[in-house]
């Protein structure tokens, strides 16, 4: 039987880990492995649990990359709509530079054996990213169709105020930086 989905929001470092996918299980394994090495062998390990991370080079299977790519296709006239899953799904997105800054902060000031959540401490719907991407591309779309909904229930990715926050980029800046990559690659945005 699968673990019960229990949303305990906001998510703190003390929340029980309940992985729901093979990917999540691998993350929990790494978490316990590092803490185990610290507890048994004294390894100066720090566990960072970073929430959704955005930046250049993300694969097309990630929702923000899929959106940015589809917005680019709109601009090129190759499509007239955006196809996406659950636009109401909520996430805590951070720019990769903020997460790396948090890693550096943890390396300097973190306590060995401790767990630290990293995120923006702001929640945004997928729809808000679509609207930001369209706005930043100077494009209007007539409708947004949903397909292949992966979230059966609304999943809130809220993070509790963590011990290692290094947020610099606003939500709008995260979207702009992702779209900038597509602008540079395609050279098609004005």
TrEMBL record:
Gene Ontology biological-process annotations: 'de novo' GDP-L-fucose biosynthetic process
Keywords on record: Lyase
Stored InterPro entries: GDP_Man_deHydtase, NAD(P)-bd_dom, NAD(P)-bd_dom_sf
Keyword check for Lyase: yes
EC id: 4.2.1.47
Residue ranges constituting the NAD(P)-binding domain according to the UniProt record: 8-150
The keyword Lyase appears for this protein: yes
Names of required cofactors: NADP(+)
SUPFAM superfamilies: NAD(P)-binding Rossmann-fold domains
GO molecular function: GDP-mannose 4,6-dehydratase activity
Entry similarity comment: Belongs to the NAD(P)-dependent epimerase/dehydratase family. GDP-mannose 4,6-dehydratase subfamily.
PANTHER family listed in its UniProt record: GDP-MANNOSE 4,6 DEHYDRATASE (PTHR43715:SF1), GDP-MANNOSE 4,6-DEHYDRATASE (PTHR43715)
Protein name: GDP-mannose 4,6-dehydratase
Source species: marine sediment metagenome
């Amino acid at each position: 039987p699968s673990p019960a989905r229990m949303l305990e929001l906001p998510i703190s470092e003390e929340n029980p880990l309940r992985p729901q996918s093979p990917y999540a299980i691998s993350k929990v394994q790494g978490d316990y492995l590092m803490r185990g090495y610290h507890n048994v062998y004294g390894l100066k390990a720090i566990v960072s649990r970073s929430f959704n991370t955005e930046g250049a080079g993300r694969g097309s299977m990630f929702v923000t990359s899929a959106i940015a790519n589809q917005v680019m296709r709109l601009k090129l006239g190759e499509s007239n709509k955006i196809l996406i899953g659950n636009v109401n799904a909520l996430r805590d997105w951070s720019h990769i530079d903020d997460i790396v800054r948090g890693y550096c902060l943890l390396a300097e000031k973190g306590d060995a054996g401790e767990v630290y959540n990293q995120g923006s401490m702001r929640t945004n719907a997928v729809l808000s990213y679509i609207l930001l991407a369209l706005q930043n591309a100077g494009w209007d779309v007539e409708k947004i169709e949903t397909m292949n909904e992966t979230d059966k229930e609304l999943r809130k990715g809220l993070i509790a105020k963590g011990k290692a926050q290094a947020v610099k980029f606003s939500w709008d800046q995260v979207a702009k930086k992702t779209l900038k990559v597509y602008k540079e690659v395609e050279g098609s945005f004005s």
